[in-house]
Design a protein that fits this description.
With about 240 residues, the protein is α/β, with parallel strands linked by helices. It contains 6 helices and 11 strands. The protein is about 25% helix and about 35% strand. Strands 3-2-1-4-5-11-10 form a 7-stranded mixed β-sheet, with helices on both faces. A hairpin with a 2-residue loop joins strand 8 and strand 9.
Length: about 240
């Protein structure tokens, strides 16, 4: 995952990802589906950018969970009033429930297979209050993934310059992204590499996992927040 580059995450994704607008869309969804909702758990919260906007601009008591300790350190600095837990989305138990659970930016793909997908959505359901709302942004479907792609992002701030190139491949139902980073500052240029593997699930498989976990009123928006689709479901 992002174990080698947590400190670069906001610099890279802050260049094109509109957390403020996404948080506003999420807050509207929560308000429409659960008008009395006040507590939110953001699973795979990253560095806490959605949580920051949900708390500061929309009055939601958002907290987070992530498997990357480096992200959690940054999130705690960014949103010190929020609570953050370290854990795996497919195997966590916080001992409490929330009015809404989020899993955004296709992080659910990191479960890799159907068994862990089922475990993850069951964990989401366990942490929802009765009638609570799940907002889940999926990764690509098997038909939607394009192997052989080359992508590049260039970002800089003050004396730091970062170039990230990635190459996409596929093996069965696993998509793979190999990231190469060139990180330059006054001390020189460093090269880091990361490999990200995410499972490719069909819409039918996603719906079945949600239904088996006890969700009802499952709706799917093909556009969603970032053109990757969005599942919205209510805890049964």
């Amino acid at each position: 995952m992002f174990k080698k580059t947590p400190e670069l995450y906001d610099l890279i994704y802050g260049g094109f990802k509109d957390y403020e607008s996404e948080a506003a869309s999420i807050a509207r969804l929560v308000a429409n589906l659960a008008p009395d909702a006040s507590t939110v758990l953001d699973v795979a919260c990253g560095t806490g950018s959605h949580i920051a906007h949900l708390r500061r601009s929309h009055g939601l008591l958002a907290d987070g969970l992530d498997i990357e300790r480096g992200f959690l350190d940054l999130a705690r600095t960014k949103v010190p009033q929020a609570q953050f837990w370290h854990g795996d989305m497919a195997d966590f138990d916080l001992g409490t429930t929330f009015d809404a659970v989020l899993c955004l930016f296709s992080a659910v793909g990191y479960v890799r297979d159907l068994q862990r997908l089922g475990s993850a959505v069951s964990r989401f359901r366990k942490h929802l209050s009765p009638g609570g709302v799940l907002i889940l942004e999926p990764w690509f479907t098997p038909d939607g993934w394009t192997p052989g792609g080359i992508y590049m992002h260039c970002r800089e701030e003050e004396s730091l310059k970062v170039v990230r190139m990635s190459h996409s491949t596929v093996e069965g139902r696993i998509s793979r992204l190999v990231f190469h980073y060139l990180i330059g500052d006054g001390s020189g240029i460093e090269h880091r590499t990361e490999i990200h593997e995410l499972g490719l699930f069909t819409q039918a498989e996603m719906r079945a996992a949600l239904a088996n976990a006890g969700f009802r009123e499952v709706a799917y928006d093909p556009k969603g927040l970032t053109d990757r689709g969005l599942y919205v479901a209510r805890a049964g």
